Amino acid sequence: MPSRRDFLAASATLAVGLSCLGLSGPGFASSHLMLTRKVPASGEALAVIGAGTSGSFEVEADSAQYQQLKQVLKVFFDGGGQVIDTSPNYGGADAVLGQLLEEGGWRGQTFLATKIAADSRAAAEAQWAATLRNLRTDKVDLLQIHNLRDWQRQLPYARELKAQGLTRYVGVTHYVDSGLDALEGILRNEQLDFIQIHYSVNSPAAARTVLPLAQDKGVAVLINRAFDDGRLFAKVKGQALPAWAAEAGIGSWAQLFLKFAISHPAVTAVIPATGRPDRQLDQLKAGSGPLLSDAQRKQLIEQFG
Q1: Angle formed by the axes of helices 121-135 and 93-104, to 10°?
Q2: How far is the C-alpha of 128 from the C-alpha of 283, rounded, in Å?
Q3: What is the SS3 string spanning 142-200?
Q4: Which of 85, 111, 178, 185 is most buried (CB neighbours < 10 A)?
Q5: Where is the NADP-dependent oxidoreductase domain (predicted)?
Q6: How far apart are CA 227 and CA 231, in angstroms?
Q7: What is the pLDDT tens value at each position of the chain, 305 positions in all?
């Protein structure tokens, strides 16, 4: 495990490197303007590149990895990021995020999304109280029913919390193709502000029905698993980017996978997770420059299908 001395040395090296490249501080944010999309329910504009916390934020507070996450968040906010998605069942990630946001003074810059993952009203109420404590806040921006778990009971509870001013938006999530039919049914029959679903070059099924339906119904969309939990990087190891990538301002496979997701017009933001500042910096670059054409997206689906 890296020592604090190792972390400080690495942080200094990173800061020098970013500065030399012109990719840190106010210059980065102003010269790489992040594309935004509006939340249909309100017209609020959100940056298209957000962040997740699953895995990457499951660290010990005040460890070297925790200190590195401070650099990750600094890069994120300096680059125009807003949306951060977490959950009470991500191994303590919400408490780590809450502490980091408080220490960094970033809560006011954060569109904070979390979830209910419970099987009864009593469990949900206890979980919600713990969520507010862990996130060190009195309200969140988006409260989602995690993977449709007990959604018939939990969605009305989330709406109660919205009516009380404890969340501004409510929604539901899923992460695999087997949940698409149920999600489609809920979209057709329930009033939602957001959905969160998987969508990637090797898992594009959401674009057949769920994403167009969300667009028609005026529901914002967060995209998870744009990297297929990292498996896509193994598939492209050693491979060159498509010839047209540079024209779209794409300099890495991570940027390409993220740009594929945000190029669908129904998508509001994509939420990749990382615990490394250099990767965070790379991911943010996907939020600027041209979007992919229908032909380019089709080519990628055929390549990875």
Answers
A1: 30
A2: 31
A3: EEEEHHHCCHHHHHHHHHHHHHCCCEEEEEEECCCHHHHHHHHHHHHHCCCCEEEEECE
A4: 85
A5: 49-297
A6: 7
A7: 444 444 444 444 445 444 443 444 443 443 469 999 999 999 999 999 999 999 999 999 989 999 999 999 999 999 999 999 999 999 999 999 999 999 999 999 999 999 999 999 999 999 999 999 999 999 999 999 999 999 999 999 999 999 999 999 999 999 999 999 999 999 999 999 999 999 999 999 999 999 999 999 999 999 999 999 999 999 999 999 999 999 999 999 999 999 999 999 999 999 999 999 999 999 999 999 999 999 999 999 999 98
Beta strand extents in the chain (DSSP E only) = 36-38, 45-47, 51-52, 83-85, 111-116, 140-145, 167-173, 194-198, 220-224, 269-270
Give me the sheet containing 269-270, strands edge to edge.
51-52, 83-85, 111-116, 140-145, 167-173, 194-198, 220-224, 269-270
Q: Give residue for tokens 């569109």.
A: 111
Which pTM was predicted? 0.91
Query: Which residue, among 289, 297, 258, has the nearest Cα to 50 in the 3D structure?
Result: 258
Q: Let me know: does 199 contact 267? Beta carbons within 8 Å.
A: yes
Instruction: Report whether 213 contacts 184 (CB < 8 A).
Output: yes
Q: Are 249 and 290 in contact (CB under 8 A)?
A: yes
| 174 close to 197: Cβ distance less than 8 angstroms | yes
Distance CA(60)–CA(46), nearest Å, equals 30
Report the Cα 239 to chain-centroid distance in Å: 26
Maximum CA pair distance of the chain?
Answer: 55
Structure-token match 């099987």, residue found: 119
